[in-house]
Amino acid sequence: MSFAGKAIIVTGASAGIGRELAIALAARGARLALAARRRPELEETAAACRGEAVILPTDLARPDACRALVDGAVAALGGIDAVVHDAGITMHARFDEVRDLSLYETLMRVNYLGPVHVTHRALPHLRARRGLVVAVSSLLGLTGAPTRTGYAASKHALQGFMDSLRLEVAADGIDVLVVSPGFVATGIRARAGHAAVEPRRAMTAAACAARIVDAMARRRREVLIPGSARALQALRLIAPGVVDRFIARAFAGRRP
What we know:
By secondary structure, the chain is an alpha/beta fold.
């Protein structure tokens, strides 16, 4: 897939992986519609793109805003060749310490239902151009982890939706790519109220974005980052207890 002249929506473009994806795609000649809640940060991303990039401030927790995003992108760019779902929020709390369960509804609205509404509105345009849907999920969309019950559940839902959608739209020439990164230094933890220190060995957002752009160009169906995570998923099938202990240790001490 060549990106030159392609019209691409990127959500979560104000920071982290989304921002780096926008910059990388613009460098390859893509025409972008950048979405996030914070206008000032979107304007900074658009300036860094140095290409055709319109900003569309959007709250993905609102279905009407999701529809408006797609309509605005079509009006500005003349169509849609790809949608990249990167926007997301996380949590850091044991389930028995959560006092307000509306947190779980918010996580589902942003991480799962937002992509559902955007994809539904964009589907006719993607079908017209045999386009691409990209979901930046998480390794926690494939397994669980302590203090991430709501986040992991929302990413499991996103994974299931995209896997099912892929089967439905394959005959229309639409490809669906699910990217599942591990620890990436994006700042999402700080925005969730967690200590701003990123985990050791966290991949940079730019390095993660480069992997995603390569997978988009190849129109792959799934990418696990880092690649060694695939071995962990295979081990989970035969020794789930070992993987549980590994994950528990990996997340130990990361609570506020």
